[in-house]
Structures are given as C-alpha cells and as structure tokens.
Amino acid sequence: MTIFFIILSYLNIADSLFYNNFFDLSEIEYKRLFFFDSSLNKDENLRLNYTLSVLHNNPVKGYRETQRFIGDFPEMGEEVKVKLGLGLGDCGFYSLATEILSQTDNKKWCGYYCLSNGQFYEAQRIFLEGNFKELAGEIERFLKKKKSATKAMIMSAVLPGSGELYAGNKRIGFFDFLLTWGSGYLFYGAIKNKKYVDASLIFGLLFSRFYFGSISNAGRLVEIKNREDTEVWLENLRKKYFY
Predict the structure, then answer these.
(1) What is the DSSP letter of 41?
(2) Which contiguous run of DSSP H or E holds residue 233?
(3) With left for phi above 0 and alpha for psi between -120 and 50, is residue 159 left, alpha or beta?
(4) Gap between the Cα atoms of 27 and 132, Å rounded
C-alpha cells in the first residue's frame, strides 16, 4: 500500500511538472516513477511524456529516447503520434516530425514542419491535401519573391558587383566592382605596355581572385538573404496561422 501511494505521488508530481513545462524536473520524476515500478515503462502515455521531457532538456539524448519509444510502441494511436510529432518539431527535428505527422490527420503542422525543413513544394502538397489552400497560396507567393543564386552569379559574371546588389548588399557589391575593375585596369595597362610577366601576376593574383570572388559572393549572399527571409516568413506564418 505504501509503494502504491509513493508511485501515485510521483505520478502526480511528474505529470504536473510536465504539463507546466518544467521538463528538467519532470524527467527526473518520471525516472523515479519507472524505478519504483518498472512495469510503467510499458505505459504509452507515461513513456511519451518522459520522452518529450528528455527531448526538451537534451535534444541529442531525446532523439535516441524517441527512437526507443517508437521501437517499443510501433502501434501508436493518432493522439500519441500528433503529440510526439509536435514535440519533435518544437525541438527542431523537422524531418522525423514530418514523417510521424504525415501518418495522422494533422496536415497543418505536418506541412509547417515540412516547410521548416526547406521542403516547400512537399509542404504545399500537404497543405492542399489537408484543404489549407490559403497556406498553400502563401508558399506560392513567397517562392515567387525568392532570389536566385544562379541569376546573381550570372549577373556578377557579366558585371562584377551587380549580383551582390541584386542580393541586397550594396557595400560588398560596390567594393567588388571597384576591386575587379581596378585590377582589370592594371592588367590592361600591363598588357598595353607589353609587361607580360606583370600582366600574368596581376591576372593570377588580383583580377581572377576579385572577379571569381565577386561571382562567389553573389551566390553566397543570395543564399544568406533567402535563409534570413525564410526564417522571418516562417515566424510570421506561424503567428498568423498557428496560434
């Protein structure tokens, strides 16, 4: 009888801590609970709460615990899958979260975590499947605004610095333009004066470095810009449709 009340006490404490987001403490209490009664390891809901507690405290350790949970409970119910998927997504494991949520009717969050994983067209398909046409439309509009790294690199290949301007970085674009054209002018002057050794050194050490550097900068800056814009867009999307 004493053991029963101890277990009941730990259960109430663990659940209370978990549902109030004190995950570090709830993890400890669930461990104590399993220590006193190892049969509770077979309780799907208790193990789920423990797994989510570990996930929030230590994502790497939590991921391993998630794999054990999935192995121990291969026939998870809809509610458990949704809860686990949301927990994984909240901790940044977007791929696994999407995989689990795709087995449920929760297409909204499944699509969101798919988006967070950079899979825009797959997320759009999921939203349409779940009849979230407005969210699918948001993706369509955002993709039209995204800048092209290939376009930026071609622009800088034709006119050094222009790709960087296209990416939204005027300062680097201006400097790349000056450095490339300045070294190009020196190269032209050396050729004109038949100083071919100087010309080869200028071309190898200055012009080619600045010219190809400008092309590389253009592509890199577009990728950075797109990544930053995507993060802001996702956060705004979450606030608008998911709260």
Answers:
(1) G
(2) helix 208-241
(3) beta
(4) 36
Phi/psi region, residue 73 (left: phi>0; alpha: psi -120 to 50; beta: rest), is: beta
Q: Which residues, 6+ apart, have CB-to-CB distance to 187 below 8 Å?
A: 199, 202, 203, 206, 207
State residue 106 phi and psi, 5-degree precision: -85, 75
Q: What is the model's pTM?
A: 0.78
- Residue for token pair 């201006």: 174
Of 92, 130, 135, whose CA–CA distance to 113 is shortest? 92
Contact by Cβ (8 Å): 74, 67:
no
Structure tokens at 181: 């054209």
pLDDT of residue 130: 92
Phi, psi at 103, each rounded to 5°: -90, 5
Q: How far apart are CA 101 and CA 110, in angstroms?
A: 5
Distance CA 52, CA 105 (A): 21
Measured CA distances, 144 to 87, 123, 139, 141, 147 (Å): 31, 16, 9, 5, 8
Q: How many other CB atoms are found less than 10 A from the CB of residue 229?
A: 15
101 in Cβ contact with 110 (< 8 Å): yes
Residue 146 DSSP code:
P
Which are the contacts of 175, defined by CB distance < 8 A and separation ≥ 6?
A: 161
Structure confidence by residue, pLDDT tens digits, 109-149: 999 999 999 999 999 999 999 999 999 999 999 999 999 99
